[in-house]
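re: that chain from earlier
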Amino acid sequence: MTGLRRAAFLVAGLAACLISCSNQEERDVPEAICGTRIDPGLTRALVTSRDDLHEFNRVDRSEAITAPCVLLSGREAVLDFQFSWDDSATDLMYLATGTGSVSHVSEPRSVALAAKTLIGTDGAISQAPCRTKSGNYFTLTLQLPKIKPGDGDHRGDIERFMRAYFPATLRTLGCR
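^ sequence. v structure.
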């Protein structure tokens, strides 16, 4: 085999390896979480472990019943969502700072989005009008149980995720 031919095979082999390696990185995080398509890069920034990612999903969009959806790594929750429908708007700060475990978010701050949104150091809550048979408002709570409550390093990642995820979720709900 000539040197030129060997070099061509080497380059082709390296290119195939680079493509397959980058595809593996993209596949390690799902493209849809809890029924909503999302850029895996936004999810990857929030997920501390990507081993054996799978969902536990109790959300039934057609019934619009309050329910959880959890992205798990093995047996540990890495993204914990609560989908909720209500007749009236909820005080998000009350939910975020309350003593309950379902919607608690540490150090919540309002951010300017089309929907009411609070971003914390370990999660977020967004709410928008959404008329369904189960209510007039939809609230989505995101909690990141693997991120320490006082760790402000992820606040920007959480905000970027919610800016994409919440509007995409609203589009899947059939709000009127």
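Confidence is low (pLDDT under 50) at residues 4-27.
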